[in-house]
Design brief:
This protein has about 400 residues and is of the alpha/beta class. About 30% of the residues lie in helices and about 25% in strands. It has a 6-stranded mixed beta sheet. A 3-stranded antiparallel beta sheet has the order 3-4-7, with no helix packed on it. β13 and β14 form a beta hairpin. α4 crosses α5 and α5 crosses α6.
Length: about 400
C-alpha cells in the first residue's frame, strides 16, 4: 500500500476480484478467465482513462513475445494461476486481450450489459468460458462460440505481415498474410492509411479469414504508409520492428550468454549465476573470447568489459551513445559514477536477439541489482542510484 503506484494498479485489481473470482467463480477445469477480466477492468482501465490503453496492450503483447517460447505456450483452457512470466503472459495478458476484442466486437454498451448479466446469472456460482459465450451470444443475437473457441482452445497467436503495391487506376493493393503455423484465424483488424494530403489517418476495420487475402484502397500516389493494428487491439505476435530492445527480451531468452570481465569477477559471476538459473546459460570469461556469441542473447557485464563496444555501437540507432564516463540519452548525460546502469540493444548479428550492458559502479549495490532488475523487463535502459540501489 505504501507504494504510490499501487493505488491505481494492484489495489483496485484485488478489490475487483470481489466481483470476478470471489463473486462469480471461474471454472478452473476449463480455464481461469477472472484474472484477465480483472486486469482489463482495473489495470487496463486506469491506463485507458489516461489515454494509454494502447501502451498497456502493447506491453502485454511484448511480454507474450518475450516470455512465451513455443514450448512454453498453452491454451487458455489450461490456465489456473500464474507461476512464471510465461504463464502470466498467457493467463493474464492473452485473456485480457480476449476481453478487449470481445468489447470491440459487441460495442461498449452491450459489453457492459453482458458483464451485468453474467454477474446476475452466476453470482456465487461457477461460470465457464462456454457460459460467458452463451451470455454474450444471447445478448447480441449472434453465435460467439467460434470467437471464443479460437482464442480459448487454440495455442498461440496470429502473426501478420502485409505488402502494398500499385494497382490499376491509381489504386493500392494491400495484401495480408497470416504467417503462423496452422490454419488461419478469423480476425477483425484495424488498418490505418496515412495520406500526404490528410492530417489524420483513415482507419478501417478489415475482416481476415484466409492465410493470404487482400483489399483495395484509393489514391496510391498519395498514400504514405499503411499500419496494421496501430493501437494494438488484436492479440497477435508483434513484429520485431514494432518492439524496441528490452530488458525482458534478455530475461525471456531460453538461451543466454554472460560475458564476465576480469575486474570484480566474483561479483559478476554471482549475478550471472542468479540471472541464468533455470535456462540454457553459459558464463564466459571475456579474455577467452574473440567475438560476441552469435546464436543467443548476451549480457555484457561491466562498462570496462572489452565487449561493451558492441552495445555502444548498437544503441546509436536510437540516438544514444556511451563512453567511459556515462550514457547520453535524449541529449543529456547519465554518469556511471555512483550509479548502476543498464542498456539494451539489438544483437548486431541477429535482430531477433538482444544484447545488454550492466554496470554496477559500487559492488555494494550488486545484491540489490540482482533482486530488482528482473522486475524491470518493460524498459530498454535504467539508471539506479546508491547502494540499495534506488
Amino acid at each position: 500500500i505504501r507504494f504510490p503506484f499501487i493505488i491505481d494498479s494492484s489495489y483496485p485489481h484485488e478489490i475487483l476480484h470481489n466481483w470476478w473470482g470471489n463473486g462469480v467463480y471461474p471454472d478452473y477445469e476449463t480455464g481461469n478467465w477472472s484474472e484477465g477480466l480483472t486486469a482489463y477492468l482495473a489495470d487496463h482501465l486506469f491506463q485507458e482513462m489516461n489515454g494509454l490503453g494502447h501502451e498497456y496492450r502493447k506491453d502485454n503483447l511484448i511480454r507474450y513475445r518475450n516470455y512465451v517460447a513455443s514450448g512454453d505456450d498453452f491454451p487458455l483452457t489450461q490456465f489456473t494461476s500464474r507461476n512464471s512470466a510465461a504463464s502470466q503472459a498467457v493467463g493474464y495478458g492473452k485473456t485480457m486481450m480476449l476481453w478487449h476484442m470481445l468489447r470491440r466486437k459487441v460495442g461498449d454498451d452491450l459489453f457492459l450489459a453482458g458483464l451485468r448479466e453474467l454477474y446476475a446469472r452466476y453470482q456465487f456460482q461457477i461460470a465457464s468460458y462456454d457460459d460467458i459465450a452463451s451470455v454474450f451470444s444471447e445478448l447480441i443475437g449472434e453465435d460467439l462460440q467460434p470467437f471464443f473457441d479460437q482464442w480459448v482452445n487454440r495455442t498461440g497467436a496470429p502473426r501478420l505481415s502485409l505488402s502494398v503495391d500499385d494497382a490499376d487506376d491509381n489504386q493500392a493493393r494491400i495484401m495480408f498474410t497470416q504467417l503462423q503455423d496452422g490454419e488461419a484465424y478469423n480476425l477483425d483488424v484495424p488498418v490505418a492509411l496515412y495520406y500526404a494530403s490528410e492530417a489524420e489517418p483513415r482507419i478501417y476495420e478489415v475482416s481476415l479469414s484466409q492465410k493470404f487475402e487482400g483489399v483495395m484502397a484509393d489514391n496510391y500516389s498519395d498514400l504514405q504508409a499503411v499500419v496494421v493494428d496501430p493501437y494494438f487491439d488484436v492479440f497477435r505476435q508483434l513484429d520485431r520492428e514494432e518492439i524496441p530492445p528490452l530488458i525482458g527480451q534478455l530475461f525471456g531468452s531460453s538461451s543466454i550468454s554472460f560475458i564476465v570481465p576480469l575486474e570484480n569477477r566474483q561479483y559478476w559471476v554471482q549475478m550471472a549465476e542468479a540471472f541464468g538459473a533455470g535456462v540454457d546459460a553459459e558464463i564466459l570469461m571475456a579474455e577467452d573470447l574473440d567475438e560476441l556469441p552469435r546464436d543467443r542473447s548476451v549480457w555484457i557485464l561491466g562498462k570496462d568489459n572489452p565487449f561493451s563496444n558492441h552495445v555502444s555501437e548498437s544503441i546509436s540507432l536510437y540516438g544514444a551513445s556511451e563512453n567511459a564516463e556515462g550514457v547520453y540519452l535524449a541529449g543529456s548525460q547519465v554518469e556511471y559514477l555512483n550509479r548502476s546502469t543498464v542498456l539494451t540493444a539489438r544483437h548486431p548479428q541477429d535482430a531477433e536477439l538482444a544484447i545488454g550492458l550492466i554496470h554496477v559502479d559500487d559492488m555494494i549495490a550488486m545484491a540489490g541489482m540482482i533482486e530488482k532488475l528482473p522486475h524491470y523487463g518493460k524498459y530498454s535502459y535504467l539508471s539506479f542510484i546508491g547502494n540499495e540501489p534506488t
